Amino acid sequence: MKSAYHVLADNRDMKKNKQKGESSNTEVTGTSFKSSNIWGLTCQPKIKQFLWRLAHNSLPLHTKISRRGMDIDTRCPVCWRLNENGGHCFLKCKMVKKCWIALSIKYIRIDLLESTSAKDTVLKILSLQQEAKMKVICLLFSCWEARNKANAGKQLWSTAEVVHRAMSINPYCSMKL
Description:
mainly alpha
């Protein structure tokens, strides 16, 4: 696994090669994964970092923390129904499902449910058309923010608040708020 420093260094080298006229393949192809696809996105750095952590399965989800020996309740802090893992947090949680439906991208969520790993999920997201890709990325980040607020004991955001936040941070959203 590459560190963030090495990913950034590779990205810098690719930009230098491009300036010299050499071609570089920054597209997602087949089963390969180029982190530079994440770093080249048109969004805030904190969203890129979130997506990189999602792809590398390094988000601090309850089941992951529990596996490391900490005695915590592993239920989802949003719905309190099932154990919180990446699949539940971003694709299966009752509140999150409503957000996917509200943004009219339920079909993408269903496709992502077939992913075999976090990296596979991010690969599928990066292969989407630009507008759909940014809508999904911003929704995932907004869901993560809502989850973190609930985890800290603050009031849970409504579906409308999560969707509003996702649309407001999306650089490709025609409905700027």
